[in-house]
Amino acid sequence: MKNVLEAPFLVEFAKTAANMYRLGWDERNGGNISYLLKEEEVKEFLDVNHVIRKLPLAGVNSAAFDISPLIGKYFLVTGTGKYFKNVLDDPETNLGIIRIAKDKTIDLLWGYKDGGRTTSEFPAHMMSHIARLKVDPNNRVVMHCHPTNLLAMTYVHELDEAKFSHTLWEMSTECIVVFPEGVGVLPWMLCGTDEIGIATAEKMASFRIVLWSLHGVYAAGKNLDETFGLIETVEKAATIYNIIGQRKVVNTISEDAMKQLVDLFKIRDVVRWDFFRNK
Ligand code: 13P
Ligand code: ZN
Question: Does 154 contact ligand 1 (Cβ within 6 A)?
């Protein structure tokens, strides 16, 4: 059996967590990632018949959402209370490889070495996976983090999805190309609960990125790079918004320019036309 610490999925995951920490998106234990693994890739590194511990299906408290669409699926997941800062140096304590068991509990196959368990945001992660897999069967990653500028923006910008998305599109030319569907926006809600998981998953039916106002962001994608890049692009736009601050805007990306980008990148079918002011 090969050494799981050298598994490409684990190495890339740990490096991604380190980058997220470096960018200031994950202070202390802030943020969590779940990565859907293929059984074949797990079997190269672990005996999948050897369950080292059973874990409860839980957020902050026990969870009661329907996880049945994910029974038998394997995930690499950050542990609750764990610091992204420490993932690269000690993956086995800070991460776990799990499988959703038939009895709707969690089989721990590797990791959480100090007795830990899955992130308190497990319900929102799993419900987001279920929602995104319906839209894109190749979706494998859900990422939650606390990007500074995006978070700041939710304190001062109207929390209207169309207006928020439009403002972000105006902050950099690439924005409408990277997230033509805009961003989903949730009001402040209690984290670690089934309720915020349900609300996030509802948004994930039409957005790959959902803001948790005054808290952070959820994003989904086919792989770690794509998901990271989506958050990076939205956070960059929010940074520009904050740098502009109260200063008078004298130039902006017009809707005519946005329409040219939509045509050039052939994204007419996915862009949210209803988020335009002049439809
Ligand atoms: P966990 O440490 O349980 O992953 O929680 C971090 C977080 O960001 C909660 O929203
Ligand atoms: Zn959080």
Answer: no
- Domains (range + CATH), the chain: 1-118 (3.40.225.10), 121-279 (3.40.225.10)
Q: Is 121 a catalytic residue?
A: yes
Residues in the chain: 279
Predicted confidence (pLDDT) per residue in 98-148, tens digit: 999 999 999 999 999 999 999 999 999 999 999 999 999 999 999 999 999
Q: Tens digits of per-residue pLDDT, 128-141? A: 999 999 999 999 99
Average pLDDT, the chain: 98
Mutate to test the pocket of ligand 1, among 21, 32, 94 (most ligand atoms within 8 A of CB): 32
Residues having C-beta closer than 5 Å to ion ligand 2: 216
Is the Cβ atom of 123 under 6 angstroms away from ligand 1?
no
Helix (H, G, I), strand (E, B) or coil at 77: strand
29 lines ligand 1 (CB under 6 A): yes
pTM of the model: 0.98
| Distances from the Cα of 72 to the Cα of 67, 76, 164, 188, 244, angstroms | 10, 13, 38, 33, 48
Single out the residue of 180, 189, 251 nearest to residue 209, CA to CA. 180
Q: Which residues pair with 111 in a beta bridge?
A: 96
Nearest CA to ligand 1 atom 6: 30
